[in-house]
From TrEMBL, chains A, B:
Its main location: membrane. K(+) binds at T91, T92, I200, G201, T298, A299, N415, L416. It comes from Thalassotalea marina. This is Trk system potassium uptake protein. NCBIfam families: 2a38 (TIGR00933). GO terms for cellular component: plasma membrane. The lineage of its organism: Bacteria, Pseudomonadati, Pseudomonadota, Gammaproteobacteria, Alteromonadales. Belongs to the TrkH potassium transport family. The chain crosses the membrane at residues 16-37, 49-70, 116-141, 162-181, 217-238, 258-277, 313-334, 376-397, 436-461. It is found in: Cell inner membrane. The keyword Cell inner membrane applies. Low-affinity potassium transport system. Interacts with Trk system potassium uptake protein TrkA.
Length: 463, 463
């Protein structure tokens, strides 16, 4: 909270005081909570792991909401402050703010910084913690994929893993900032958008989002870094370590991820051309590429209102956001590797029907998958669907229309950001109850359902 | 096709000739196809089983479309005739007809009879054939549930099983007819509606469907027989055989099925009361019970336009139709037992997270389930979702709006009948392309996805 206070000082546009006050409050609260326990140490058990992850995210996001509540411009309700804070830290990027361009620089910076810090948390969560906890088949990554150290095992201690990954994360942010700046953004906008690009967050400093810049070059830079940020960071580490790009092309998830982006871009381009929505083929391609990648990686940046695109394109892209980014990336959704495994299992079922006595194993690349991983992924899929249906019914019950409810829940559960219908631009039109449901949906999505769901199990508290 | 020709003779309202002509055509075509193969016999292999089931349904429904094409009133296009015929035989009950009350009696009878015959086919398919083929976990029923013979194994030969089940099916139809007749329907209406009730089809002889009769007693009779028809017919057989109702209460699927009906009715009742939609509590309860059971068993009869009910009720009931009836019933959807197993597996996953080293087995009643069955059900679930998404995108691509596309596909894939939006009353507003997509969706739903999907596998044709 100190950087936005500093920003406020630089731009002299007010709003710095609330960040300072909130900082002092958090410092005091943090020390009070930490002080009595400062001497406790010990091994973490899985059960405590879940609790710590959930508490970490909720407490951090709740504290982060404080400066937003204290602000005078914009004057946010408690619900709205929490919504914006959770949306930032979970890198969802759904906003309740309107007229963003008029906000103080400190607030703008703060929102972008929330996303960037959220992205840092997600990387460590997804690469180091969830595989340890065995969430939704992610034990797959425990020691099996190319990891940050040479013997292809993850650095055992989380802190060490985190250091390596954050190095890549910061490096990418710097590269992205410089690219945006070089392409014509102000340094402030360049840093802010690099924050939300690498975090696949989708917050912007302008109401028109990336469309404000009207620059195909900036769009392309954004697409380039979104794709990089949508790839497993452990894979990036392996590539850096081996000093060869080969690891990318051996990774099945990476290949499918790229294929999805290509297919979506081509479908969007073909439909946009046949409906003659844009003047030139180049413009149509630019928009198709940008929106396809922005929505399907769950960034949620906009250049144009894809909600107004013809026929099935809006829903197609919303559906694509269910797939989302790769595991171990800052992207949301169910993750490419899980959908890939569901597909492989589906094909195996069909093959078993034709050859009932043959034994088929599911292979990812060259490795056969243990049944345990496949089972866990099925459980994940069903739980995802169940949480989706319940959240959507709750929104409908509070009076939201069908398409808004469907896409609002998809946008928050997939950590995407914008939806269709009433929430195509922002979430301000929704009521407080709906916003709280969506806050919970964001958290469910970001914590990969099970981390949060397990806390609802009576056995969790008994054990 | 002879009964409707006869009906036409009785009511002297035209339309009989086309049924006679179509009958002669089918007779000739059938003999021509059968004659060269009349001496071939041999064991059925699984692969041939799939082909026969799919061919049986498509050929029968195509032939059944012929009289509808030949009719002068209504004058149907080829697409519409196929849609109506497939909708009838798959017991979907979606119609492209408007102003049903004015149609000749022969046509009305014919549509109801299609549903009834379709129901007969489904019972045999679901109780005897799919378990043998091992579709979507239904091998579970191969020799495990209480079956029609005393040693709790299914009568091995399909023809024998069919005879027993059809006896129950015809008996229920007679009982339902007499009840409707006693409650005030004409004998024609009573038979016609008994046909579509026991088949969980949903076709009616009136535009207002069951709402035409404005009788709570008829509504209640309909609910009663829908619930009976929504239960596994093998379970009915076991009860008849043991002359005790005990088998029902030992069956986990039955218990969950009843629970779902109760919960949905209560939710609908509570919301309808709180919004004051109906004059009296009795009327609200009558409507809540009728619509909840009618939609969630996938019958699709209407008394009132539930599409206009407040808040989440329409979508809640559409979601409930995804669960549908019990396996081995005439109901559609994914079937209660599958959803129950997905739920149990989800809970097992959560328990495994808390106790990573413990071994949990999934039990249905007192029986532990083999992993093979659970896997097959997961595959079914994913394939169901994939077919749903693809059909919905195809409808959207042809220009249908979001909510219509979503509910039209749900209504056809779940063999439900009515949707929301443009297809709340009938499917006439849709284009030909959409109708063909939905015809395929009905067939996918009725053949439990895999029976049809396996034909798309190259290995199927190579083997
Ligand atoms: K996002
Ligand atoms: K139906």
């Amino acid at each position: 909270m100190l950087p936005p206070a500093f920003i406020s000082l630089v731009y002299r546009d007010g709003g710095g005081v609330s960040f300072l006050m909130a900082f002092i409050f958090c410092l005091v609260a943090g020390i009070t909570a930490w002080y009595p326990q400062r001497n406790e140490k010990g091994d973490l058990r899985a059960r405590e792991g879940f609790l710590i992850v959930v508490l970490f995210w909720t407490v951090l996001a709740s504290f982060s909401a404080i400066p937003l509540m204290l602000l005078e411009t914009p004057n946010l309700s408690i619900t709205d402050a929490f919504f914006e804070s959770f949306s930032g830290l979970t890198t969802t990027g759904a906003t309740i703010l309107t007229q963003i361009d008029g906000l103080p620089h400190a607030v703008l910076w703060y929102r972008q910084q929330l996303q960037w810090l959220g992205g840092m948390g997600i990387i460590v969560l997804a690469v180091a913690i969830l595989p340890m906890l065995g969430i939704g088949g992610m034990q797959l990554y425990r020691a099996e994929t190319p990891g940050p150290v040479k013997d292809s095992k993850m650095t055992p201690r989380i802190a060490d893993t985190a250091k390596h990954l954050w190095f890549i994360y910061v490096g990418l942010t710097v590269a992205c900032t410089l690219s945006y700046w070089g392409a014509g953004m102000t340094m402030f906008d360049a840093i802010c958008h690099a924050f939300s690009t690498i975090a696949i967050g989708g917050f912007s400093t302008h109401d028109l989002s990336m469309g404000y810049f009207q620059s195909p070059l900036i769009n392309f830079i954004c697409v380039f870094f979104l794709i990089i940020a949508g790839v497993n960071f452990a894979l990036h580490f392996a590539v850096l370590n081996s000093k060869s790009l080969r690891a990318y092309f051996y990774d099945p998830e990476f290949k499918v991820f790229i294929l999805i982006q290509l297919v979506l871009t081509l479908i969007c381009f073909a439909v946009l051309m046949s409906y003659g929505i844009y003047q030139t083929g180049f413009e149509a391609f630019d928009q198709a590429l940008f929106q396809a990648v922005s929505i399907s990686t769950t960034a949620g940046f906009a250049t144009t209102s894809f909600a107004d695109w013809p026929t099935m394109l809006p829903i197609l892209l919303i559906f694509a956001s269910f797939i989302g980014g790769c595991a171990g990336s800052t992207g949301g959704g169910m993750k490419v590797v899980r959908v890939l495994l569901l597909y492989l299992q589906g094909v195996r079922e069909l093959n078993k029907l034709v050859h009932p006595k043959a034994i088929f194993t599911i292979k990812l690349g060259k490795k056969a998958l243990p049944n345990r991983v496949v089972e866990a992924i099925w459980g994940f899929f069903a739980a995802y669907a169940a949480v989706f249906v319940i959240c959507m019914l709750l929104l409908l019950a509070s009076g939201v229309d069908d398409i808004t409810a469907f896409t609002a829940v998809a946008a928050c559960l997939n950590n995407l950001g914008p939806g269709l219908g009433e929430v195509a631009a922002n979430f301000a039109p929704l009521g407080d109850f709906s916003k709280w449901v969506l806050i919970v949906a964001m958290l469910f999505g970001r914590l990969e359902i099970f981390t949060l769901l397990v806390l609802f199990l009576p056995a969790f508290w008994r054990a």
